[in-house]
Design a protein that fits this description.
Layout lengths: L2 H7 L9 H9 L2 E5 L4 E3 L7 E7 L2 E6 L5 E7 L4 E2 L13 E4 L3 E7 H10 L1 H26 L3 H16 E4 L2 E4 L5 H8 L3 H13 L3 E4 L2 E4 L2 H6 L3
Antiparallel strand pairs: 1-8, 2-7, 3-6, 3-8, 4-5, 4-7, 9-10, 10-12, 11-12
Length: about 230
């Protein structure tokens, strides 16, 4: 079977389509590979393509008025991006870069718009995804405006557990290869202040941090930090 069809089957947006429908989508889809640290598109560029992640990790960032990078979202296998602008001609809302070597499915935006027009069920699924992303952004905003640095870091760790955590050997592993700078940019904080909190949590045997991700060693105690 067409490799693109096999990949499309694993995309949540298309899971309810039959093979014939997937074959039609495969015809307007191209496979793209990006090395680590590649830029896929830049903020404010004309929006030409919608992407689906076959493998790898993508971060989407924006630059504030002071020139500081802010990480808006981290995306993994099966995710679609961008999540906005399907019903207008708005440009890309942020800059998308690969954190790991990544393989993507790409569909030209005009073809994707026609796909939504012809398949109301897919359009409905897209709106559901957009609604979930809005809720996630609201939670991110709560993290940024709430409490001191310690509480902001703990809230972010708990959100990452909910979104990316996988239970493993009585712990929870967040398989995101984020640098401390990426983590700080998610909260609009300095790397030094975030490092201090992460090191404190490590000393308390609540987390362990490596290049592969973050291991939550004691979720209950970490949750209690916010009470």
């Amino acid at each position: 079977m067409n490799r693109k069809v096999e990949i499309l089957k694993r995309v949540p947006l298309f899971r309810d389509l039959n093979n014939q429908e997937l074959e039609k989508i495969a015809q307007i889809t191209s496979l793209k590979e990006y090395p680590k640290h590649s830029t896929i598109f830049m903020e404010a560029q004309p929006r030409t393509t919608v992407y689906f992640i076959e493998s790898g990790v993508i971060k989407v960032t924006k630059v504030d008025n002071q020139g500081n990078e802010q990480v808006i979202s981290i995306l993994q296998k099966g995710d679609m991006f961008p999540h906005v602008g399907f019903f207008d001609d708005s440009p890309y809302p942020g800059t998308a870069q690969t954190i790991q070597n990544s393989k993507l499915l790409a569909i030209p935006i005009h073809d994707f718009d026609r796909l939504l027009d012809a398949n109301p069920q897919i359009a409905k699924s897209v709106m559901k995804i957009m609604a979930v992303k809005i809720l996630q952004l609201q939670r991110r905003l709560q993290e940024v405006i709430s409490g001191d640095v310690y509480h902001k870091v703990v809230m972010t760790l708990l959100r990452l557990v909910d979104e990316y955590g996988v239970s493993k050997d009585k712990s929870i592993f967040i398989s995101l290869p984020l640098t401390h700078q990426d983590f700080a940019n998610m909260l609009g904080l300095s790397r030094e202040s975030v490092n201090r909190v992460l090191n404190q949590l490590k000393k308390e045997n609540l987390i362990d941090v490596s290049r592969k991700g973050i291991k939550i060693l004691d979720l209950k105690t970490l949750q209690d930090k916010l009470s």
